[in-house]
Amino acid sequence: MAAISSRYARALVDVVIEQKIDATTALQQVTDMVAAVAESDDLRKVWESPAVGSDQKRALLDALASQAGMLRPIRNFFAVLIDHGRIPMLAQIARQFEAELNNQLGFVEAGISSSRQLSAEEKQELVSQVERITRKKVRARYDTNPDLLGGAVVRVGSTIYDGSVRGQLRKLKEQLSNP
Question: What integer pLDDT is reported at residue 157 of this predicted model?
Answer without folding.
Answer: 81
